Fold:
Amino acid sequence: MNRISDQRLTLEAFFELPDEGVSLELVNGRAIPKMSPKLFHAALQATLLMLLRAWGRSRGRALPEWAVVLRRHDEDWVPVPDLLYVSYERLPRQWRRNEACPVAPELVVEIISPGQTFGLLTGKAGDYLTAGVLRVWVIDSEALTITVFYPDRPPATFRENDEMMDELFAGFRLTPEQLFTEADLIEQ
Structure:
């Protein structure tokens, strides 16, 4: 990842940066450009967004590429997850501001892009959990897996027809095969 600037930024200075068409994350006080998605990433993101919105429309917001203000290593951290879900319990339906998500969402989804590794996103998943996110899904389009990270137990990797069910998302069911098929990344 390239840094936009080596200048150390405050949270306020980060949000005052000009919009130059590049999605930025605040990491260790630095503005870091987010990797540009490719076909597999975009297809998985769109498909999962559709599935989460269908399930959660009356429960909360499922949104792509929405910056979220968190804390990491006692510093402000503003990641831009590929997808997030935040319930109306955590962020009321009436909250309508054109700014970063001000609370830790229940779910963050990161899709491994070319040039990224599972190990890198495992570390990021740990940071999300420490910051108050309740679940992190890391999707690997090469291995055709979804790994779920929890705050209170080891991660679980789901393959093929392993059904993902979680009390946090009552009624939402998904298998990796369903996701990758609906994203048109594997043959039916």
In short: Helices lie at 11-15, 39-56, 118-130, 176-182.
